[in-house]
Amino acid sequence: MTYSHRIDTFEKNTPLAVPVSGTAGLQVVIGLSPVNMADDPLKAVNNPVIARTYNEAASQLGYCTDFENYTLCQSINASFMVFPVSPVIFINVLDPRKHKKEYSREDILVSSRIATVEDIGIFLEDLKVSVTGEEGETELERDKDYVVEFNTVGGLAVSLLSSEKTNGANRLKLTGTQLDPSKVTKEDIIGGYNVATGKESGIELVRQVYPKFGLVPGLLLAPKWSKEPEVAAALAAKTEELNGTFTCECVVDMDTGGNTVYSDLKEGKERQGFISRHGILLWPKVKLGDAVYDYSAVWAAMTAYTDAVNGDIPAKSPSNELLNMSAAVLEDGTEILLDTAQAELINSYGIVTAVNDNGWRAWGNNTAGYPSVTDPKDRWICCRRMMSWYRNHFILSYKDKVDDPMNPRLIETVVDAENQYLNSLSNTGYIAGGQIRYNEEDNPASSILDGRIIFSTQIAFWTPAEYIRNDIEFNPSILQSALGGV
């Protein structure tokens, strides 16, 4: 420790906004991350990780601004920078042991003894740096001739130290190993169970979230990849009977390369074949500055944030909520500007879109099951999410009662406690009303002897005020009365 006898200051980095905490809309995001930047690259492969801050996510998964290839970075950005909400579960499928390639780059310009490399995914442990000049190549020694670190966008900053090899150097050559996200396929995202190794991968790992973290998924998403029908179907399959008992929803992107005209989205939805009552289908992409996001990453973060600031209960519809974006775009960057009539047509197909109304807003209340599904609990996004949330609440609240003696005290405990809770939800405006009962006709002696008990709950959620109208009539008598009073 150095001896200090002085007055001094230290400048700290500006902290990001503290994320609000909520689990009603717990995001589970499947995709790719630049694991070469992670503290432990192999630990981040097909292993669900939880993050409550940007720094925690970046250290476990790596972070860069190449959102097209490294799709988990979209949700890291959206969840910790655009809508500060936590926690978030991430599942990375990019494996540096197989999704890689050889890397070589020559004639990298050195300016003020620093060389900036924009390429993302380079492994520092495999990196070789050489000085190139008239006499050929001279390999440099790390920490003696140069130091290297990742820059803010995921590339490299190579700083030359003063040494005999580096003095006068103006060109560098780099060789090594680089991640290759193009080798990842939709089969990697979908994943599965390997009988030989007993290991799960991809979307199949959603099963591990509750046993590992004690948290129930709220929203499943795979930005960019979910536009593939097989990936969307795999996400939807995980929304029901998760861990044999839980229920959640999934957020799916539409292809904005093949679906470019709003009036053709009905056919586009049919081609994608996604009509799940547990699904939210989104079109198009969204943009903030130069950064382009798949809509699912931003919509899910916004929805989780909306839940968190509303009592961590998903009663509030995420429609008409600000997206904190600057544009809506297609795959090729073409900006989309929808008016109300166009957005209504898209909504009628069971698709959520975005409109600019004093700021870009999510627009749409229907699940992907609509218009085929018209049951209010399955049509409206907020009602569907409330039903899933309430089912999960009941399981988590009373699972410790399983295997207790089936006596009147057990029945009274559940009925009294749950009616009290339902009344509190009603009094605070989260639900329209609800009541739980124990009916003897639902529990015959044969069921009791078989160890089975059934309760019955009646509950109603508030539907969204999707259409508000004021019938305005010109009344001549009012004019006559006003003139007569002159």
SSE inventory with pairings:
Layout lengths: L19 E2 L5 E5 L17 E3 L2 H8 L10 H11 L2 E2 L1 E5 L7 E10 L4 E4 L10 E6 L2 E4 L6 E5 L5 E5 L10 E9 L6 H5 L1 E3 L4 E3 L7 H5 L5 E3 L7 H9 L11 E5 L11 H8 L6 E4 L2 E4 L2 E3 L1 H14 L18 E3 L10 H9 L4 E4 L3 E4 L12 H4 L1 H18 L9 H20 L5 E5 L7 H5 L6 E5 L15 H9 L2
Parallel strand pairs: 1-4, 2-5, 2-15, 15-16, 16-17
Antiparallel strand pairs: 3-5, 6-12, 7-11, 8-9, 8-12, 10-11, 13-14, 18-19, 18-20, 21-22, 23-24
Helix pairs in contact: 2-7
Structure description:
The protein is built from 13 helices and 24 strands. It has 486 residues and is an alpha+beta fold. α5 links the parallel β15 and β16. The longest helix has 20 residues, at 408-427. The protein starts with 19 loop residues before the first strand and ends with a helix.
Number of strands: 24
Supply the helix-strand structural class: alpha+beta
Percent range of helical residues:
25-40%
Mean pLDDT: 94
Given the structure, what is the number of helices? 13
Distance between the termini: 90 Å
Key traits:
four-stranded antiparallel β-sheet; 24 strands; alpha+beta; 486 residues; globular; 22% strand
Outline of the structure:
By secondary structure, the protein is an alpha+beta fold.
